[in-house]
From TrEMBL:
Annotated EC: 2.6.1.42
An example Gene Ontology biological process: isoleucine biosynthetic process
UniProt name for this protein: Branched-chain-amino-acid aminotransferase
Pfam family, one: Aminotran_4
Cellular component terms (Gene Ontology): cytosol
Swiss-Prot/TrEMBL cofactor(s): pyridoxal 5'-phosphate
Catalytic activity: L-isoleucine + 2-oxoglutarate = (S)-3-methyl-2-oxopentanoate + L-glutamate; L-valine + 2-oxoglutarate = 3-methyl-2-oxobutanoate + L-glutamate; L-leucine + 2-oxoglutarate = 4-methyl-2-oxopentanoate + L-glutamate
Matching InterPro entries: Aminotrans_IV, Aminotrans_IV_CS, Aminotransferase-like, B_amino_transI, BCAT-like_C, BCAT-like_N, BCAT_family, Class-IV_PLP-Dep_Aminotrnsfr
């Protein structure tokens, strides 16, 4: 990733990719206290446009506020930084990574003289779980790792350190021949994937876990709007893993994962073991919306030029 051409927005300056470096004593590198976003820009008929830019920037600021980190830029400046990162790298579609982290002025948990730095990187990144997964769905395994308890790691924040738990779960699932992990909350109810929210469908109704141990996903929220648009009932409730086993359909959502069907959980096929019809309608509408092919949701797209 580091050795490539391009520019990274780094504390307000477009910096050559290879020069966008930090010191090994960077505080966030040691303790994981940082906040970030994952954002996508899509190619639309009017050029590259960022999907739900304001919501991602708002969540970055919420994450920083939760972690008591003062961001040295305004929301407007970071919106512009994201547009600039796509534009100046000549990308027609992109994955973007805004991140705020502490500098290297001090070490130890008590360090109180730390500067806050912000970067926005942008690069081309196709389907996170592979093109085929979007059609055929993925194999998922319930993790032996529990998702965060709200009073251990505050799950409204998208914080760097939270992803240790995600990586442990994902690596375990991959080692077992699956594509993704399903993490349960500390009480044993379904929470989310390592980097996705989960939905299940049963008898025509769509269900998703309440926001206790899972991230308030922007794609999750998008699905709420799209389900309403298509006339489906959507209910937030506690879900057990056996409810997923007997669901008619299940799918993951995320900026990176987009709308990815789940075809199997713990060796049990979900429904017919293929992408379900409601998943397919939502997925197809999702791609129309993000790619600017649907007039009704065009307000979610911010052109980069
Ligand atoms: N849960 C976790 C743990 C995630 O990392 C992500 C990706 N940001 C999501 C859910 C989905 O969130 P979003 O739809 O905002 O990308």
């Amino acid at each position: 990733m580091a050795d490539r051409d391009g520019l990274i927005w780094f504390d307000g300056k477009m910096t050559p990719w290879r020069d966008a470096n930090v010191h090994v004593l960077t505080h966030t590198l040691h303790y994981g206290m940082g906040v970030f976003e994952g954002v996508r820009a899509y190619q639309t008929p009017d050029g590259a446009a960022i999907f739900r830019l304001q919501e991602h920037t708002d969540r970055l600021f919420d994450s920083a506020h939760i972690m008591n980190m003062k961001l040295p830029f305004s929301k407007e400046e970071l919106n512009e930084a994201q547009r600039q990162a796509v534009r100046e790298n000549n990308l027609s579609s992109a994955y973007m990574r805004p991140m705020a982290f502490y500098g290297s002025e001090g070490m130890g948990l008590r360090a109180n003289n730390l500067s806050v730095h912000v970067i926005v990187a942008a690069w081309e990144w196709g389907a996170y779980l592979g093109e085929e997964s979007l059609q055929k769905g993925i194999k998922v395994r319930t993790s032996s790792y529990t998702r965060h308890h709200v009073n251990i790691s505050m799950t409204r924040a998208k914080a760097n350190g939270h992803y240790i738990n995600s990586m442990l779960a994902l690596n375990e699932a991959l080692a077992c021949g699956c594509d993704e992990a399903l993490l349960l909350d500390p009480e044993g109810y379904v929470a989310e994937g390592s980097g996705e929210n989960i939905f299940v469908v049963r008898d025509g109704v769509i269900y998703t876990p309440e926001l206790t141990s899972c991230l308030n996903g922007i794609t999750r929220n998008t699905i709420f709007h799209l389900a309403e648009h298509l006339g489906y009932k959507l209910v937030e409730k506690r879900i057990t893993r056996d409810e997923v086993y007997i669901a008619d359909e299940a799918f993951f959502t995320g900026t990176a994962a987009e709308v990815t069907p789940i075809r199997e959980l713990d060796g049990r096929p979900i429904g017919t073991g293929q992408r379900g019809p409601i998943t397919e309608r939502l997925q197809s509408l999702y791609f129309d919306v993000v790619k600017g092919r649907n007039e009704e949701f065009k307000h979610w797209l911010t052109p980069v030029v």
